[in-house]
Amino acid sequence: MHKNKLTIAILLGMSSLALGCNDSAEQSKPTLKSQKAPDQLTLKAQFKDNFKIGTAISRDQILGALPEDLNVAKAQFNTFTPENSMKWERIHPELETYDFEAADALVEYAQENSQELVGHTLVWHSQTPDWVFEDDQGEPLTRDALLKRMQNHINTVAGRYKNRIFAWDVVNEALNEDGTLRESKWSTIIGDDFIEYAFKYAKQAAPNAKLYYNDYNLYKPEKRAGAIALIKNLQSKGIQIDGIGMQAHYSLDNPELSLMEDSIVAYAATGIDVMITELDISVLPFPEGEEQGADISLDIALQERFNPYPDGLPSEVNTQLGERYKAVFNILKKHDDKVSRVTFWGISDARTWRNDWPMQGRTDYPLLIDRELKLKSFVSDL
Ligand code: G3I
Predict the structure, then answer these.
(1) Within a domain: 338
(2) Does 75 sit in the ligand 1 pocket, CB within 6 Å?
(3) Burial bucket for residue 155 (CB in 10 Å: 0-12, 13-18, 19+)
(4) Can you give the pTM of this predicted structure?
(5) Among 1, 115, 162, 326, which is least packed by CB within 10 angstroms?
């Protein structure tokens, strides 16, 4: 038992004595948490003895267009990840052009408010402009030239925030669903060792930052095997990797949570941190035959039957969502010696990518904070 948990257990025991409770199961059940009304709770307080609790922050949110969102984020979470502002296409849109406006604002805000910041992301097959892979004639770069370009980018971006960013998602989504390495311009031009170089360059640029591999559907046994091979390959070569981020873009019936638990245990056994990095649970039906997860190239035309709750979530579905979140958090709390952070992919249901994926323009309810910026009623039970 964690020291803090022991303290709470003692305090709870003392409070039931002070209240004159007998030790029937019914009377000893309520905890300090469940006695609090949801509006008095904060997520960061609720899970303070378990793990850091975080959210993604958008450009609009950090640049002041949505001050209420930012207030909620500050009150509820103790770690932030930029949703898009540090992706290559945003921060380095052209060869000689960097746009640090949103990233700088986020780094400053996080420092002022003692929030832990996780940079996202240095090397990804997606959201990376075509010019990155081409010379000035539009021809594919050589391996050496692309490695140099990757190194310059990492030096400039990770180096700029050296000692001010807690960690980096160094490589994002490099694996296929079967655990093999995804074919991308990175892997085609450089070779499979592009991942090794990305981690080496990140270590050189930001020697004190934690360095992570981040991907979706990491609960799948075959993808898990690929991720473990990736981790072990880096470790065997003495290349620093500190953690693995399990994105968790789930739904009410996917995935089977025992697979998530098995993955947490397996990743932890490699000796690195395990984090849930992009948690959200969609309540909407998912088109049959399509891969759930987070492949953003999936873009299906809007069909009303896949958007059943445009005017509000029926209470029975909200109850199902609460039960699902409870099952997820029961596993995460059970393994809180292995899970160091849980980050939600967005602050509230009002602005979540799930409203637009895999169909644009739906109304989803995947987070713990509703469209009025209130914690959902079931949060106190998590
Ligand atoms: O800001 C522009 C807006 O000006 C324009 O009018 C509009 C038209 O489409 O696009 C807006 O940008 C969109 C942006 O989200 C902000 O909403 C981009 O098109 C859209 O591609 C972008 O999607 C982001 C996606 O990554 C791709 O970068 C999502 O916000 C973001 O939540 C999502 O995050 C990813 C993680 O980085 C990696 N794991 C999966 C996760 C979900 O896809």
Answers:
(1) yes
(2) no
(3) middle
(4) 0.90
(5) 1
